[in-house]
Amino acid sequence: QVQLVESGGGLVQAGGSLRLSCAASGRTFSFYPMGWYRQAPGKQRVFVARISSGGRTQYTDSVKGRFTISKDNAQNTVYLQMNSLKPEDTAVYYCNGEDTDYGLIYWGQGTQVTVSS
Prior knowledge:
Blueprint: E1 3-7, E2 10-13, E3 18-25, E4 34-39, E5 46-51, E6 57-59, E7 67-72, E8 77-82, E9 91-99, E10 104-107, E11 111-116
Parallel strand pairs: 2-11
Antiparallel strand pairs: 1-3, 3-8, 4-5, 4-9, 5-6, 7-8, 9-10, 9-11
């Protein structure tokens, strides 16, 4: 059974930093892309960042230069380092893993990030 478990969310002041982690089990996600999405209250879930199996990264424009996605293949874990946080970054952050062999996408349960002004 595939599981993705996020951690690291919390309350931080504007300008602060948080590091989110997503630990995967049941599948070796080093072979597949993994990413982060976020969902603010009353809004749809949107893309934040993605890292390919080869380490290529992509970011939504609003987080470029502030957020960094990385992974530790040995730990089957993906990270999202978030710096210079803004109140508009407040959302539930979800990790996902793309099993491109079977066309499946797995999601974690989400972790709340709240940035106070």
